[in-house]
Amino acid sequence: MSASLNRLVDEMLANAFSACGLPTETARATRSTLPELADLQCNGAMPLAKSLKRNPRELAAEVAEKLKDQPAFKEVSVAGPGFLNLRLSDEFLSECAAAQAASPDLGIVQLPADTVVLDYGGPNVAKPLHVGHLRALVIGESLRRINAAQGLNTVSDIHLGDWGLQMGQLISEIRLRWPELGPGETPDLTMDDLQRLYPEAAAACKADPARMELARAATAALQAGDPDATAIWQKLRDISLTAQRLDIDLLDTHFDLFLGESDVQPLIPGMIADMRAKGVAVESDGALIVDVATPGDNKPMPPLLLQKKDGAALYATTDLATIVARVRDQDPKRIVYVVDQRQELHFRQVFKAAERGDLAPGVELIHAGFGTVNGADGKPYKTRDGGVALLKDLIGEAIEKAGERLVNDDLTLDRIELAKLVGVAALKFADLSSYRISGYIYDADRMVSFEGKTGPYVQYACVRIGSILANAEAKGYQAGALQVTAPAERALVLECARLPEVVASAGRNNAPNEVADYVFSVAQAFSRFYTDCPVLAADTEAERASRLALCGLARAVLAKGLWLLGIAVPERM
Ligand code: ARG
């Protein structure tokens, strides 16, 4: 038996529809809106009745007739204007739960192993990660896992901002401050130094055209491969990435590639020549532009600036060259950019230019944008003194607050580890549980709470099931055949059965919030089950064995769901 309950029911519905001579497109079951009356419902008769000019209740009744004697259903009835209400049988639910528990992927449908490139993070050299990077890292990592869980071949790339005038500004600043440096030498700098130097250099360049000229010259030297400029650049890049990786690792975020804007610069001249030859890149006032407007655009689409008058490439040029490199090196089916929604126009222009230039034939380009992390005032989150909140401080705060909830006594080492797991879970879950395009209000106290829709609540549910199972094992009790009967058992099985469709939908929509909503409802269904149905103290041995098996399934589903969100589950809490 295939593992997915919902798929099996859809198949039975489709067979019943066609046995009635009806088309099967609308033969789909959804969760019942009235769980006291039914487990699932099918609304498919109503649109059909309309197009066939028939009575919807009559149509539904014909379909019900075909279904009602099948062993999967306890009760099939017609309600309201023509809903089909489906009550599943205990046997069918039990079999489906057992099949799901036995499936290595818990029934998650495996797709062809196409490659998906995920671009997230995008930190710039010389700048520490800040609140703006939180969502890119957390959503990007979750999407990587949601794709991987469906058998897709994922390639995650951090896409460092390591090129352009900013680098020239810093290189020239270093030369001015350390005039005694010999060829190829770089002063010993820390990330804190860079963090101070960079804004000062940028401000000096802005204030003084002669200073800006130095920055331009340094940029040009770097771009021409000058060894001294390159040595300083390399050092700056290493210092930054080493510091940034501390936050990246704390967030348990994985990158397959640490490539950057610099890596694709050699591809730019050829790409531009190609786009010119195709007539896609055209001259305008000495610059090169790509017309990306399409008749019927519902938003303004200014042309994409490919090359400035002075020959300099731009942010969009680099993104186009990165598409060329990814197509060449990864042969992806899809490239997903997890980048601030405020860059929406940029990506629309880049994708359209890639299409006009035929740079990525057959590759789906998606901007999975996200809204801002906001303060209590609803405006982008700032520190108390109005500064940019650093990512390491946000992670630190989450860990600290989680630690306060966990212990009153002194922190032993593994308590610190635990605070880390819980704090990071809290931070991630709070971020992932709102739809990515909407911003959300950052509230450190709320997110670490063990009550309500939070990471620690779901984590705790998973840990609690683990300890029930451990207790059972200590007593020598074993899980056995699943035989669900109680309403709370049935509800938990139905909830677990939704995992495959939730993962498929979250993948299609690039929407980790669907997984976050889901794990929360599984945790709630478990808690109702645990209140209503004694496990270790069950009435009979068979009942206990069945409930232990159900605990095992719920734990596996929760652990998988949390993994998809990038959240690890501690052994105890
Ligand atoms: N470094 C860019 C910034 O700070 C973000 C990069 C996003 N990714 C991309 N492929 N454009 O705005």
Description:
InterPro entries: aa-tRNA-synth_I_CS (IPR001412), Arg-tRNA-ligase (IPR001278), Arg-tRNA-synth_N (IPR005148), Arg-tRNA-synth_N_sf (IPR036695), ArgRS_core (IPR035684), DALR_anticod-bd (IPR008909), Rossmann-like_a/b/a_fold (IPR014729), tRNAsynth_Ia_anticodon-bd (IPR009080). Residues 458-573 form the DALR anticodon binding domain. It catalyses: tRNA(Arg) + L-arginine + ATP = L-arginyl-tRNA(Arg) + AMP + diphosphate. Monomer. By secondary structure, the protein is of the alpha/beta class. Among the domains are: 5-88, Arginyl tRNA synthetase N-terminal domain (Gyrase A, domain 2, 2-Layer Sandwich); 165-250, no CATH class; 455-564, Isoleucyl-tRNA Synthetase, Domain 1, CATH 1.10.730. It is built from 20 helices and 13 strands. The longest helix has 24 residues, at 227-250. The protein is globular. It starts with a helix and ends in a 9-residue tail after the last helix. 46% of the residues are buried. The structure holds arginine. The site of arginine (ARG) has 8 residues, from loops.
